[in-house]
Amino acid sequence: MVKSIELQGYRPQETEPFMNERQREYFRRKLAQWKLDILRESQETLSALQSENPNHPDLADRASSEADRAIELRARDRQRKLIAKIDAAISRIEDGTYGYCEETGEPISLRRLEARPIATLSIEAQERHERNERVYRDD
Predict the structure, then answer these.
(1) What residues does the Zinc finger DksA/TraR C4-type domain cover (predicted)?
(2) Element (H, E) at 103
(3) Do 28 and 87 belong to one domain?
(4) Which one, 17, 32, 80, 120, has the greatest CB density within 10 A?
(5) 1 belongs to a structural domain
(6) 19: left (phi over 0), alpha (psi -120 to 50) or beta
């Protein structure tokens, strides 16, 4: 029997044991809702793109429409990648690794997970990663 966890008005607290059952369920639901919102928005965009008349007699209108379509398609691609990250985060919740830094193994702060529930690195590890990127990028 699956136990129902009450989360109405719940916010994870630093005083609780890290990634206890309630926190895991809270983040699982948060991620699932985020994914649903993205999918709903994508469907609305797809419907709008399909209903749009691509045959604009004016060249400027056609160019503008094609530019808008390209922007929308790039946004959809970013959202597709985001959904993959959300799915990966949900998998980490299921296997017990969610909320722990992939680099150090230390817990990621709850504030960071609230702001970026797909985070895989602690703030310190992320900052180190970004500093290394700046040092080694090809400018």
Answers:
(1) 96-131
(2) none
(3) yes
(4) 120
(5) no
(6) left
What total of structural domains would you count in the chain? 2
- Report the candidate in 138, 136, 97 with the shortest Cα–Cα distance to residue 120: 97
Looking at the fold, whether 88 and 116 belong to one and the same domain comes out as no
In a domain, 9, yes or no: no
| Confidence (pLDDT) at 24 | 98
In degrees rounded to 5, what are phi and psi of residue 91? -65, -40
Measured distance CA(20)–CA(138) in Å, rounded: 43
Judged against a pLDDT cut of 90, whether residue 18 lies above it is answered with yes
Q: CA–CA separation, 107 vs 18, rounded Å?
A: 8
Same domain, 129 and 77: no
Decide if 62 is inside a domain.
yes
In angstroms, rounded to a whole number, what is the distance separating the alpha carbons of residues 112 and 30? 14
Residue-number span of the structural domain to which 134 is assigned: 100-139
pTM: 0.80
Tell me the residue length of the chain: 139
My answer on whether 80 and 31 are in the same domain is yes
Pick the closest to residue 24 from 43, 7, 46, 42 (CA basis): 7
